[in-house]
Write a structure and sequence with these properties.
The chain has ten helices and 13 strands. The chain is an alpha+beta fold and 332 residues long. The protein has three domains: 74 residues, Arc Repressor Mutant, subunit A (Orthogonal Bundle), CATH 1.10.10; 149 residues, no CATH class; 72 residues, 2-Layer Sandwich (Alpha-Beta Plaits), CATH 3.30.70. Strands 3, 4, 5, 6, 7, 8 and 9 form a seven-stranded mixed β-sheet that branches. It has a four-stranded antiparallel β-sheet with strand order 11-12-10-13, covered by helices on one side. A hairpin with a 5-residue loop joins strand 11 and strand 12. Helix 5 crosses helix 6 and helix 9 packs across helix 10. It is globular, with a radius of gyration of 22 Å. The C terminus is likely disordered.
Length: 332
């Protein structure tokens, strides 16, 4: 394995893990293909940490309470760019750029996408002009029309109405939501806001919206709501499946090629167990609360990961692939 590939794998693994990992875990994942005994691998790891430090990527250490061993991690707050303090005018400009260029196929779409991937902003301090509410840009829109309507609701602080099929429900239900924010999680867009039906803040996956989204046009020059000062978009994105309201879960098994063996932690699912095969590949068992999100995550690995069970998830991922490739008759 080339050094640059090893450094990328190490950074990705330490960023993705929910808690600090031991050197033994790194030996079984990032350094599994490296040659040498344990001492040689440990020296390699120390050199890699120095390399990352020179790139301003700090590998933190802490003592694990359960075992007393040393754990390693990369703090996301230190790795990613901090929230930017932008004026209301600057936020409006960013919003306009995103709507005009992001995913539109213009000569500026590439630079706009690259720039917006690096931006995340939140409201802080007092301002004299109504700001653009919490918008977290981290991906390319899948359904630009829905996102534009949601953005109208966010900027104008108007309630939204749409039909929504929640996880585990066979029939959609009409929801009225006061939109507080918008975020992208592992390729899927989510609207977060106050659900009038449930009377609490909920996240809504756009893939499960089964109708057009309607903006309340009554009293067009008057906001329908105010975003609470206590609302924090980043906190709303830090949930993991299965959650306490996730309903039923399924057990899934995925096989990763040897080159991807370090990356099996993630996908919004809990790792139940893993087993390394003789050829270096790894079979991983997950407890999955959101099948659609989990399948989308597995697809990001391309041919390097394959769902083995259950059959329902195999069928779902097959449908996803057919939807991309077409049905063989030229129809998408």
């Amino acid at each position: 394995m080339e050094k640059i590939e090893r450094l990328i794998n190490l950074t990705a693994y330490l960023l993705e893990t929910a808690r600090p990992v031991t050197f033994e875990q790194l030996q079984r994942t990032v350094y599994v293909d490296a040659s040498g005994n344990e001492q040689a691998l440990h020296r390699m790891f120390e050199r890699d940490k120095d390399e990352l430090r020179e790139m301003d990527i700090e590998v933190r250490t802490e003592t694990l309470e359960a075992s007393g061993e040393t754990g390693y991690t990369i703090l996301r707050d230190e790795y990613y760019l901090p929230h930017l303090e932008l004026s209301p005018a600057e936020k409006v400009a960013l919003t306009m750029v995103s709507r005009l260029f992001l995913g539109s196929g213009t000569p500026f779409s590439g630079p706009a996408h690259s720039a917006l991937l690096k931006f995340a902003f939140d409201e802080k301090g007092d301002v004299d002009v109504d700001p653009v509410p919490h918008v977290h840009w981290v991906g390319v829109p899948r359904d630009r029309r829905l996102l534009e309507v949601i953005l109208d609701g966010l900027t104008e602080r108007k309630d939204l109405k749409f039909s929504y099929r929640s996880l585990g429900s066979s029939e959609p239900v009409w929801r009225e939501v006061s939109p507080y924010g918008l975020f992208n999680r592992r390729g899927s867009w989510y609207l977060v806001g106050l659900c009038h039906l449930r009377r609490e803040i909920r996240s809504f996956k756009l893939d499960r919206v089964t109708s057009d989204i309607e903006v309340n046009r009554k009293k067009p020059h008057k906001p329908d709501f105010e975003v609470p000062d206590s609302f924090d978009l980043c906190s709303e994105t830090r949930w993991e499946w299965p959650g306490e309201h996730s309903g039923e879960t399924v057990t899934a098994q995925v096989r990763f090629e040897p080159r991807l063996a370090f990356g099996f932690s993630g996908g919004g699912a809990r790792v139940e167990g893993s087993q390394r095969r003789e050829d270096g590949s790894v079979d991983v068992t997950y407890v999955v609360g959101d099948p659609e999100e989990f399948v989308d995550w597995v697809l990001e690995f391309g041919a390097g990961a394959r769902i083995l069970a259950p059959s329902g998830l195999v069928d779902l991922i097959t449908e996803r692939i057919r939807g991309v490739l077409g049905d063989g008759d030229g129809n998408a």
